[in-house]
Amino acid sequence: MTIEEYLYYIILPVLAISVLLVFCRFVIGPSIADRVVALDLLITIGITLIAIYSIVYNQSTFLDIAMILGLIAFLSTVAFSYYLEKRNRKKREKSKGDE
Amino acid sequence: MSDVFIVILSSLGALFILLAAVGFVRMPDSYLRISVTTKAVTLGVGLILASAAIYFDNLSVTSRVLAIILFIILTSPVGAHLIGRASYFSGNKLWEKSITDELEGKYQPNSHRLSSGEEYEDEDEKRKKKIRERDLL
Fold first, then answer.
1. pTM over 0.90
2. Dihedral, CA atoms, A75, B75, B39, A9, nearest 10 degrees?
3. Which CATH number fits domain B2-93: 1.10.287, 3.90.320, 2.40.37, 3.40.390?
4. Is the ipTM here above 0.95?
């Protein structure tokens, strides 16, 4: 068994199972914070998938895309949390104004 | 020799990511979920990227991998803290079996400023007193 076959037939299915589990939580997640964290986690596992594919197909340029995905994951988490907090503040001010 | 390292590192990384995913589904509370996933997934991603660096054995790939690992190690705690803070402000409940909530009543609900609880009230009262004195004068 070569190293490429080991990565392709054992590591990739394990990562695929973990992506499915995270996606379950993304669908059922009761609060919106769970969904944001699940999205972040999906992108982060996508980075590892790209790393494994770059080994299997011997293309080191795939790692550039992994870097960009890491940047986007952080950006999306920060943006989502910023707007969540803003929305809460607006809601609270609104309810205060109603009183 | 490097094949052995690649197999060990990638297996450990995949195992950590799988455990993080299982914990993400099984944990009862969104704060516990955040705390479980950030650490385990960061370690797993780092290990698998390190195995890619060993496989290519190339300076440009190694520097790229080190940049990705450094960036993930820097940003994942920051993102977890931000989203945990936002979910606490939005009134997300803790697990009913958790023992204490140390943040309870320690932030101002409108300005979202966290404090030790007492000092802001005192400052507010001081400010009100000053305004009152000014009005009287």
1. no
2. 60
3. 1.10.287
4. no
